[in-house]
Amino acid sequence: MEYRGSQFYDREEQFARYTARRGSAENANDTLEEPIIWEMSGDVKDFSILDVGCGDARFGWKLLQAGAKHYTGLEGSQNMYGLAVRTLQEVPSQSKVIHTTIEDWTQAQNPKEASSYDLVVSRLVLHYIEDLESIFNQIYEVMKPGGRFIFSVEHPVITSTLQPTGLRTDWVVDQYFVPGYRTQDWMGGPVMKFHRTVEDYFQAGRSAGFQVVNLRESKPVRERFIHQETYERRQRIPLFLFMELRKPAT
Ligand SMILES: C[S@@+](CC[C@H](N)C(=O)[O-])C[C@H]1O[C@@H](n2cnc3c(N)ncnc32)[C@H](O)[C@@H]1O
């Protein structure tokens, strides 16, 4: 059996390995991904924020500490949802976690949610999703005019040819212009990730009506690494792609 999206995180062995990896020194999320998300987010004071695929919602906690007014997380995995509820239990009036797949949330069309968020974030989730168009349209709907949508994904040079995890010394980029699901042996189990090109992400944003205002890659910064060797390894290939989209003000 192959596992898509949040199903993967509800397999106990993979969930344990993923959470252990996230806690390890010099992990890619803390050294390469999160710093750029913060740089792109800027000042979040008084913002209402939606996090699409929030995981354990630790980012939500940090956003509230940084002055955000309210945080809503959407999460499809029961295991992750449980962690997220625990992370935010001390701030119930400022936070909400909804246990839903992103696809179901997209279909639900809650009119009360329309134009309600200053910032929507989605970190390392959209490469699990096939129908990007519907999700981008729904995110556009729920954002305030002038609001921003910031997301990170596994970089398309990585998702083109998914290789087993481990300390890699070489990479393959192949079938780059062939979109679709690929299966990877990841954290000791199979998972399906949806490959699309950099241009596909860019055009999906424009088709939904967004202005694409920023694009980043996970260029490493020496100070964020303990070991020179890890820093040099991270200079070889981009692991993550980031985009910032804006809903026009009028
Ligand atoms: C790599 S984790 C990232 C979690 C969090 N955004 C972070 O950066 O710490 C991916 C998360 O996306 C969730 N996810 C993946 N596909 C999903 C879907 N279709 N609907 C809801 N959640 C999904 C998974 O359950 C998992 O928590």
Give a written overview of the molecule.
This protein is α/β, with parallel strands linked by helices and 250 residues long. It has 10 helices and 9 strands. The chain has helices at 5-8, 12-23, 28-41, 58-65, 78-87, 102-108, 132-142, 156-159, 198-207, 228-234, and strands spanning 48-52, 70-75, 95-99, 117-123, 143-154, 180-186, 189-195, 211-217, 240-246. The chain has a 7-stranded mixed beta sheet, sandwiched between helices. Helix 4 links the parallel strand 1 and strand 2 (70-75). Bound molecules: S-adenosylmethionine (SAM). S-adenosylmethionine binds at residues 5-6, 9, 53-55, 75-77, 80, 101-103, 123-125, 128-129.
Please give the alpha-carbon distance between the first and last residues: 47 Å
Low-confidence stretches: none
SSE arrangement, N to C: HHHEHEHEHEHEHEEHEHE
Number of helices: 10
Radius of gyration: 17 Å
Derived structural class:
alpha/beta
User: What is the overall silhouette?
Assistant: globular
- Quote the beta fraction: 25-35%
Proportion of residues in helical segments: 25-40%
Give me the count of strands: 9
Ligand types = S-adenosylmethionine
Mean pLDDT, as a whole number?
A: 94
